[in-house]
Model the fold of this input.
Amino acid sequence: GENVEQHPSTLSVQEGDSAVIKCTYSDSASNYFPWYKQELGKGPQLIIDIRSNVGEKKDQRIAVTLNKTAKHFSLHITETQPEDSAVYFCAASTGTASKLTFGTGTRLQVTL
Amino acid sequence: GAVVSQHPSRVICKSGTSVKIECRSLDFQATTMFWYRQFPKQSLMLMATSNEGSKATYEQGVEKDKFLINHASLTLSTLTVTSAHPEDSSFYICSAIDAQKPNYGYTFGSGTRLTVV
Done:
């Protein structure tokens, strides 16, 4: 089955700096890669996603890049703000009707 | 956008009793529901997948007789934890998709914190 690895497990940045979280996946059939933000005691919230026919996608301060050959994808957050502090999960699936396999999570802390 | 309402948000039950968690899709048809369990500071682990009107498919290591899943309608799926024990204490999260609208992606519920005492 699919295996998704995520790094780093914790990340501390100063407000205004950029944060990068990286994930690798094992199943070459995976073609949908969402990123979720989870705040304490809440369900995951989709922040951005990318499909395998696209190499990069951007939404304001958030961007995701995908390298299908290397089987890795990354989340980039620019101009970080304290409200960006949360746990971020990457995930992969072989389609939007298939089960998601989650990475291990990254705890992002944005300090003033 | 698509919304999944999950209830209760928190529940405390005595060891040996059963607890039911509900997930309702409010503005779309949940053709498939995924149930996850999340222990503190860990990732989401898929427990089972259910399609409306069919029996759920459980992941390896998940006891189907302990975690009963019902998905009898396109808007409601339930997870019942039977004979709960302290080790079942966890955060349970549902996620629904509408196979007719794949671009909607996965919609997650807000989670249920189960504490078994």
Observations:
- The longest strand of chain A covers residues 19-25.
